């Protein structure tokens, strides 16, 4: 039996637990909100925890734009072992003694992975190759390559470095790190590539996303909390928090609602701008193009 929705259309900021897929969280929210019109911005692997932005009803149309925003992760990288999945979920494919790895070498390796970089996603990622998910190709035993993609790592910081011994007896090094990056960056791939650069292999053992755009883990709710009370951030508040705001007058609002293009506000913004009418209603997302405000998503009319 479905529950009746308890809030307006908008965003739900979920603190995803370990062991559930992002699609599993969406299914749960569909039941809680009493609607099938639910989606998420930016997949988290089952192993990962933290901020998962869920859109309900009209707010699902914001998700594609929110996916383009910066993200922050807390993670643990294990040096000394490669795995088939580039994280602890997969079998170890190679191991090397990492006891000789120094902090200086780690910092030098991280420097190479900071800034604008070319990255090859993990083969068990959800990226599509010729219309088919990469992880499906892996499961079917296909031999294929994923082309490198441009991404930006704004910062890659080590907070702790611990020496340990893995279950197979390999001397390993665990790094506690924070990564701030653009959308489309694979933290597992950073762990893999750092290990490769150091010559010992590497994979991810823990991952927690702490921020997606303006939405932080401090404002997120667990599934248990959402079962008690479904907290939905109204779409107008969600848009105002995530995008630059442009308040227009009544006449402009009427033109926009009728599909007319407005003169650009001259904000010099690279990306969507949230448009509001004099009553504070969220009307549309627009982009400044050739002196005009080009609608990219309209939420009225």
UniProtKB/TrEMBL annotation:
The active site is at residue 45. It is an enzyme of class 5 (isomerase). The keyword Isomerase applies. Pfam families: TruB_C, TruB_C_2, TruB_N. Residues 243-299 form the tRNA pseudouridine synthase II TruB subfamily 2 C-terminal domain. The keyword NAD does not apply. Residues 188-230 form the tRNA pseudouridylate synthase B C-terminal domain. It comes from the Bacteria. Keywords: Isomerase, tRNA processing. It catalyses: uridine(55) in tRNA = pseudouridine(55) in tRNA. Residues 30-187 form the Pseudouridine synthase II N-terminal domain. Belongs to the pseudouridine synthase TruB family. Type 1 subfamily. NCBIfam families: TruB (TIGR00431). This is tRNA pseudouridine synthase B.
